[in-house]
Amino acid sequence: MRKRTEPVTLEHERCAASGSSSSGSAAAALDADCRLKQNLRLAGKGPAEPRCAADAGMKRALGRRKSLWFRLRKILLCVLGLYVAIPFLIKLCPGIQAKLIFLNFVRVPYFIDLKKPQDQGLNHTCNYYLQPEEDVTIGVWHTVPAIWWKDAQGKDQMWYEDALASSHPIILYLHGNAGTRGGDHRVELYKVLSSLGYHVVTFDYRGWGDSVGTPSERGMTYDALHVFDWIKARSGDNPVYIWGHSLGTGVATNLVRRLCERETPPDALILESPFTNIREEAKSHPFSIYRYFPGFDWFFLDPITSSGIKFANDENVKHISCSLLILHAEDDPVVPFQLGRKLYNIAAPSRSFRDFKVQFIPFHSDLGYRHKYIYKSPELPRILR
């Protein structure tokens, strides 16, 4: 029995050993296969990761572009909405249009003391305050001829008022919109006129500078009339000329028409950079971005008229009987040159000027005088003579 079992046992042991050997080799093969697959997976991850990062970066860039475009579109829609809303706002509130015409809230240069004209280099100038109406006070500057520069030092208002009775002619200067009587180009003109032997009297309309009151065409004209009468009451027989610039030309023709109607005309009227009427000026103004807007007249020009603002130079010159001089630069970017020429063409044949001289002096665009630098012209003394 033992003999028979021993071979069986040995066979079983051999089978077990062989099985153990085969299973070990199989496990080793399986382990090697797993490592190979893992290495392949790791090898495959290398190029995949940069592609994923690039895709993510592209998505972020596209997201930023979409966000930027969304913001830009939002801004454009807001601007467009505002552009469309402004005409309706002006139509409903005509007072806005009046403020845009007067621009009296724009005070340039800033931080100057209008009570001290000497700070602007006008050491022969006195500051006054006059009262055309109750609750209205206007600030006035009076510059004497430059030859009196030394005599004027330290003098009071009474001395300046008495000086108006001297033999020197007087210019009442009516400035345009925006700024004050202390504006840079205005001060330079006072100096030029003073050097030519003129008294120069200028003022800020009610609502401008340190003058008290609410701006209106009627009020501005009345202020000018009050100052003119104040001058005439002190100047005796001395010549008085009225000089209007830009919007001030509208005040000037209003004033002179009224003076002619009451038979107290000035000795001459000088219009620098004039327009025909405020409607044509508003339509021709380079800053009028709505001029091609449908219904421009109804939205923008009719509210001006309804606010009582006309400044009808073209109508006024038909009722003026004194000498007229028009000065205009061809390169004027604010009041187009053609409006000044048109006003001259209306005035020249008018019957009211049949006994008076009417002149139009153009200044070539190469001179660069534009809207407010005609005072630089070396020809000005000859022209005024």
Automatic annotation (TrEMBL):
GO terms for molecular function: monoacylglycerol lipase activity; phosphatidylcholine lysophospholipase activity. It comes from the Eukaryota. It catalyses: Hydrolyzes glycerol monoesters of long-chain fatty acids. The chain crosses the membrane at residues 68-90. Its EC number is 3.1.1.23. Residues 169-296 form the AB hydrolase-1 domain. It is a single-pass membrane protein. SUPFAM superfamilies: alpha/beta-Hydrolases. It is found in: Endoplasmic reticulum membrane. Keywords: Endoplasmic reticulum, Glycoprotein, Hydrolase, Lipid metabolism, Membrane, Transmembrane, Transmembrane helix. Lysophosphatidylserine (LPS) lipase that mediates the hydrolysis of lysophosphatidylserine, a class of signaling lipids that regulates immunological and neurological processes. Represents a major lysophosphatidylserine lipase in the brain, thereby playing a key role in the central nervous system. Also able to hydrolyze oxidized phosphatidylserine; oxidized phosphatidylserine is produced in response to severe inflammatory stress and constitutes a proapoptotic 'eat me' signal. Belongs to the serine esterase family. This is Lysophosphatidylserine lipase ABHD12. It comes from Crocuta crocuta (Spotted hyena). The lineage of its organism: Eukaryota, Metazoa, Chordata, Craniata, Vertebrata. The gene is Abhd12.
